[in-house]
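Objective 1.3, modelling of assemblies. Example input:
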Amino acid sequence: MNWIETMGRELYGLFVDDAGFAIAILIWLGVFRLLSRSHAMPAWAGALALFAGLAAVLCESVLRFARSHQRR
Amino acid sequence: MHWLSTAGPTMLAAFLASLVECVEALTVVLAVGSIRGWNGALSGAAAAVAVLIAILSVLGRTLTRVPLHLLQGIVGTLLLLFGLRWLRKAILRATGSIAKHDEASAYEKNAKAMLALGHARGWDSVAFGAAFQITMLEGTEVAFIVIAIDAGGTGMLLPASVGAVAALFVVAALGFALHRPLTRVPENALKFVVGVLLSAFGTYWVGESMGLRWPGSDLAIAALVIGYLVVARLSVALGRAPSRAAAEFPGTR
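Predicted structure (tokens):
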């Protein structure tokens, strides 16, 4: 059972390191899905928006962590 | 042409990701083998590889029955979580915010743990179990990457598998030849590149699953790779500790 628990923890850890970061990614995907359904946008604009949102989530998470580390 | 333009990055992503995981597994298997004997360590690692191959072949067949859009949505999201997590960690290591992975100290730690458990007479179930567990854990990541890459529905299982198996052979050959952990593998640089590649694939498939028509079709993956690379480099520059930045660029503060 201990082995199964370890595997379960490792599997979760494959995708989630920082819960806030993972949730922010999922929220952006949900928002993008709603936006793309309710607003017709050119293909390039949709592609750019999807990428820009994910890039912003990544940047924000890295900078927040780096700054909190520097304050310590 | 489309297949070729995707097969190259696919094979590279699978090879580099597998290289990182295989190096981590090798460190523990070497520690187990050198302290407790090679029979248990090698048979544990081989058993885990066999189990993983069986899981991969069963899952590979099952996944072909799932509707492509659904598969791309689920696996693309998981790939995105996985790829961005790796990229974030690689950026934070590059900025000095978290420590880099050290294979030599991991080897020492595992070797000490193996010594503390004492020696077994005959069949060593501790060595078998330890080698099996680490190979399963690291191998699961490799298996996920291979399956996720194939989920794009573009027949990428072969290049992804070739990349993963090539990494396994390279690391096994180096481990056999050197008999010590591969401390000179630039793990963080590899994680950085793999994070970029997997994030690009994940973004592409999530977009496809939502009905997004990517400009340039498969070639958009290359644009995404460049985009993530630029964002990651920028994040490293912005997130770097002021003291380190000042040391590297005197006169900037």
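The two ends of chain A are 38 Å apart (CA to CA).
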